[in-house]
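## tool: complex_structure
## caller: assistant
## args:
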Amino acid sequence: MLNLVFLIPLLPLIGFVLLGVFGSKLPKFVSGAIACTTVLVSFLITLTLLGGVLSGSIVSETITYFDWINTDGIYLPMSFLIDPLSVWMMTIITGVGFLIHLYSAGYMSHDEGFARYFTFLNLFVFSMLMLVMGSNFVVMFAGWEGVGFCSYMLIGFWFKNTNYNNAAKKAFIMNRVGDLGFLIGMLLIFVKVGSLEYATVFGQAPLVFESGTTDIVVITLCLFVGAMGKSAQIPLYTWLPDAMAGPTPVSALIHAATMVTAGIYMIVRSNVLYTLAPFTQDFIMIIGLCTALFAATIGLVQNDIKKVLAYSTVSQLGYMFFALGLGAYTTGLFHVTTHAFFKALLFLGSGSVIHAMSGEQDIRSMGGLRKKLPITFLTFLIGTIAIAGIPPFAGFFSKDEILAYAYQRSPILWALGILGALMTTFYMFRMFFLTFFGEFRGTEHQRSHLHESPLIMTLPLMILSILSIAGGFLGVPHVLGGHNWFGHYLSGVAPVKELALDHSTEILLMSISVALVLVVIIIAYVIYVSKKQVPVSEGSTLTTPHRVLYNKYYIDELYDALFSKTLRWKSEWFYKLLEKGGIDSLVNGIGKGVQWSGKTLRMAQTGNISTYLFLMVLGIILLLIITGLLV
Amino acid sequence: MKTIILLSVLGIVAMMADIFKYRAVLWYLVLAGIGAAVGLELLEWNQNMPYYGMLLMDNYAVAFSCIILGLLFVWFLVSRDSYTGQEFNDADHYALILFSSVGALLMVSFVDLSLMFLGIEILSIPLYILAGSRKKDLSSNESSLKYFLMGSFTTGILLFGITLVYGATGTFHIERIASAIGNSTMPVYFYTGIALLVVGFGFKVSAVPFHFWTPDVYQGAPTFITAYMSTIVKTAGFAGFYRLFSTSFSNARMPELMEGTTWSILVIVLIVLTIVIGNLIAAYQTNAKRMLAYSGVAQAGYMLMAVLVSQVEDNTKSSLMLYMASYGLATLAAFTVLYYVQKSKGSDEFEAFTSLGKTNPLLAAVLTISMLSLAGIPPTAGFFAKFYLFTSVLKANPSLLWLVGVAIFGSLVSVYYYFKLIISMYGSDEKSTAEVPTNMAYQFILVAIVLIILFLGIQPGLITNLANL
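## result:
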């Protein structure tokens, strides 16, 4: 079982190389088949590992393949850590990844960049697997950078559109800010502990660091900055909504189900460090909660189907960090899992809608699609219910667990969490009703073209909706007669946080949240189905709060003024003064010096053999004189 | 030992090919022979077998023999194209190359100075002929004559050095020399002998100021002979240099000279001169072949650093092995591309490489990766080769930080001329000229070489862990 582990990342890499080299010459069918098969086989091998973990035969195995750097003081092996956490992430990555590959084969079938698309999609799966499989921070960082690169390439996939390119650049640059934090954190760990192997670092950490000291707080904060970038938290979240420029399946895989959860994975993996830094935990909790609420308010008024989902993703990621900040690591990962199912489903569903609408993404031009797209409609409904948190769908269990921990900390946190959940419910159902109910509001051309997507696209939707229904049963809480199986599954990696609420309180909290969610759904139904309200069209005057929300709190403009403009101003200044005056002349001077000395020294190379021998003899005399002086 | 015999027999077989008319299959025969030689060599691993007090097949000898045989194998693969024409008689050339390689194998496994000298001569004499094998070409003749004259001059110096050392210690055996030194102070002529040996080896590995032959000979000789000289000959030279000095002379220190040995000062002088002068002149070149020649000079400066610290740090030998392997592969690949360009364009100036990136993307990519590796840029093998070498110098003696500084300065300059070649392939907007014709099989070999370079860049431990055994 374990001797096949290397194939899991290798197969997508082989797919990447094959498609990268021969992709343009292969027929689309073959490219698609290569891409899907490699990921499918990886998934099957991962399943055998999962079987091993579940049966208890694999607890925590480190497999070292070779030493990358091995000198005094620096030992960096290329090795994988196979334990419940990494296997779980691998299952999600390859499983959901395969479904999305399959879907993409249909979705991208008319695109001329078909092979290029799958090249990077395979590379992404490889990098993401490296990220979660590595047994040290370096391998994780390699994967971390790899997924960032693939994300950049795929956001700017349609590179002829300047806006898309800008979105790709924005994502890359914002991620770089985070990566720098991650890198600094990593190097600090190395300085303090002397190793980057998880086993050593987490084993030594309680001995090296005292709880709450500056060292550990700085390290964990730096790592968290990395997570902020990759997982789109305040203040580094603005790239994610723009990242929707990429093809929709990319949004589903990279910007919803897997890559953006890398930050959560990293924190769960390093939970030993975070538990030692209560300050960082509180910080994460506040950032997470703020992001969850902030993004949800923006989501309330967006009209682009993918933008709504994007803000919803940011908001849900905020929830996950909220859970981590509360110390409920396993709960955070539980929400990662259920979110991967329902958000991938929703994105793919929206892709199916966009496909049917010939590329239209504005929900104001949709409506009444449920009859034309029955499967998409039904699966989308399942996804929407799951994210809203209605039992027994997946989102209910994970969200409820987070809220229970919040209540245990403080009822105010719980109330804020509920507020976010209600906003989520509202904007999701607003979008759902506007898309699938009422009258069709698009053009005649779009109407005539409406069709349900082919089976290759609807099949992943169906599988994901089954997972969105059933995924929650992985972590049924004790109060509902379950055993929180998921928490126990991960207990070897991250401790399960104690939940000390009495059962009646827990039941009460659940009932309140479910009741409120139902009320919000009814409100949304009344507004958008009964009263047939449609968001006002572009250009009409909005009320001030609405306008602020619609323009996303003007955060982009703020960043532009605060960072881009000042940066441009500074670089202008540096360019004129330092670059032109100082560095340029220095560099040119050195270059000229090298040229001149090369030219001069070359004179010795006369081609004349007697000169050569003469100079050689001079050299010999020089060496003999030195020897003579020493002796 | 068996390998040496096998290779000698193989040389004789090659010589007979014309008489008994099997030239058509000779190439395959030679390749199979070298493959078998590698197998035989591997059987000697961990045996530590001495042969008549002359050779000792320790792991150092086996590892370097394998590197030499591996490079030789690659050389035979890539040089095939130049022997399919009528210009050279491949049977003669192959025989000479194989004999020369026997010398190379002797140089990595000797324990007796007389055999070391024999190895150097066996290595060199066929090369004097091969360098001049383009009989009607004036520069080839010049190359051969210059090499011969200066080579024989150094041979005299080398012998003189051996004689003095023998006079002082009374033995040719390199381990007995070391024990003869013990902790006693030796007579002055002993140290003179060591200095002359430094000169002799300095010439063989083309260290400044004994490098003057290198550019002229490299440029005049047929391209693949140059490739052979700058890879396999250099590897053998350094392996011999390292073996002799680390075994015999690591105790040759003066009582008042606590840090290091007398000759380490000499080697430091050579390193600084070689790195600075080699790189500076290389930066001025406009001819690719000559640039590679100077690059070979400059690289020798880095390799000398391994010899310098050989007395202190036992695992510098693995750094040297990695360096030789990565340098050898990258240089062979670069010369192969150079050969094709020269063949179709009739010139080996930088201009001949213009827009190679468009006409032959594969050749251009191969050359680019070789250049990156020579410049020492990750993820190629060259990066780790330099990295390990520099760290082992610092580990041996932290006060040599300034020397590593010089080496890094040299690497910076080298980036300039290595990249100049890359830029000339990709940077120009010129209308693409005719494609350089290549054979599918050779392209495949080149790709394989590049993959090995990249693989060693990801897993340098493959070679560096050898020394721990």
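## assistant note: Chain A touches chain B through 36 residues (CB under 8 Å). The first strand of chain A starts at residue 61 and ends at 71. Handing back to user.
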